[in-house]
Design goal:
Helices cover 33% and strands 18% of the residues. It has helices at residues 25-33, 48-61, 77-85, 100-108, 120-128, 151-161, 178-186, 196-199, 208-216, 242-247, 310-329; strands at 13-15, 37-41, 67-71, 90-94, 112-117, 134-137, 143-144, 169-172, 191-194, 220-223, 236-239, 261-267, 270-275, 287-288. Helix 1 (25-33) packs parallel to helix 2. The longest helix is centred in the last third of the chain and has 20 residues, at 310-329. Keywords: Flavoprotein, FMN, Oxidoreductase. This is Nitronate monooxygenase domain-containing protein.
């Protein structure tokens, strides 16, 4: 149907790369099969063989294209090599400079590069580096938040930067349903990138308690209490759980380093201890005090009322947006 497609994908709907391993092959393949752009999340450490397996496993579940998200603040040279070697459709990058050399190398391998940015200057730099699309993240977004601006004012400024170029701008931050999708289109975006909505799907690798909390709770807060040692100066938007409420004014000199171990997870094939304030969200394998772990969510979480199959999320976004445009705006 080609309605509002981007980068060769049927629909302008992107499933954000959900760390540390919440968007695994099952979720990414389900989004790809539904016509969206699903993004795996590369490990936060060099693990090229494991990443190659993730890509191969995803390819056994879908014959559609998909992408991989990489956090440039962590060691990733070997991981990047694998992504280009496997000729994955899209390399999404975040939290770090997106150098022209990387874009050039990716293009030689036939891989499109899509950085996520949180301010006007970084958007300009990304455009100058020759990227294929840009995700603009507003402060409403869940998880690690790179900028300080709200989406509604930042997005059109970035859209104005690309008026004479064929670089689609995608909106991220607090978007959950077709109303948010249409609003983003009205601001000039060609598509939307959703994180929290895709955590609360059947195929996501999030722990069932985390998924349930996304349905039950509806408040988030911008904070920096999680993962101060592991990922410094990387504020987050987290769900206001009872644990978070008790600890949200953690003194600035404290970090997870001297905190007790509250659980364990297998993350991207490796056993990891989870310390209090460690900042790693619980996945399907996590054991221990789940309620005391970080649970990231964007401001749109109050609109999430049920756990759905990922294909249904995509379908409702597309059909809902078409109906909304037809019903509300076609006769204006």
């Amino acid at each position: 149907m080609g309605w509002r497609g981007i980068l060769g994908f049927e629909y302008g709907i992107v499933q954000a790369p959900l760390g540390p391993d919440i968007s695994g092959p099952e979720l990414v393949a389900a989004v790809a099969n539904a016509g969206g752009l699903g993004l795996l999340r590369a490990p936060d450490w060099e693990s090229p063989d494991y990443l190659r397996e993730l890509i191969k496993k995803t390819r056994t579940l879908t014959d559609k294209p998909f992408g991989v998200g990489v956090i440039l603040a962590f060691p990733c040279e070997e991981n990047l090599k694998v992504i280009l070697d496997e000729k994955v459709a899209v390399l999404q990058v975040y939290w770090g400079e997106c150098p022209q050399e990387l874009v050039h190398e990716a293009h030689l391998a036939g891989v499109k590069v899509v950085p996520q940015v949180g301010n006007f200057e970084d958007a300009r730099k990304a455009i100058d580096a020759g990227v294929d699309a840009i995700i603009v993240q507003g402060r409403e977004a869940g998880g690690h938040v790179i900028g300080q601006e709200g989406l509604i004012s930042l997005l059109p400024r970035v859209v104005d930067l690309v008026t004479d170029r064929d670089i689609p701008v995608l909106a991220a931050g607090g978007i959950v349903d077709s109303r948010g999708y249409v609003a983003a289109l009205a601001l000039g975006a060609k598509g939307v990138c959703l994180g929290t909505r895709f955590v609360a799907t059947d195929e996501s690798n999030a722990h069932p308690i985390y998924k349930r909390k996304l349905i039950k709770l509806d408040r988030t807060e911008y904070t920096n209490i999680f993962g101060r040692a592991r990922w410094p100066n990387a504020p987050q938007r987290a769900l206001v759980t009872p644990f978070f409420n008790d600890w949200k004014s953690l003194p600035p000199d404290e970090s997870e380093i001297n905190q007790p171990v509250i659980g364990r997870s297998t993350i991207n094939g490796e056993e990891k201890e989870i310390r209090r304030f460690g900042g790693t969200v619980p996945n399907m394998t996590t054991t221990g005090d789940i309620e005391s772990m970080a649970m990231y969510a964007g401001e749109g979480v109050g609109l999430i009322k049920e756990i759905l199959p990922a294909s249904e999320v995509v379908k409702r976004l597309v059909e809902g947006a078409q109906q909304l445009i037809h019903r509300e705006f076609s006769s204006i």
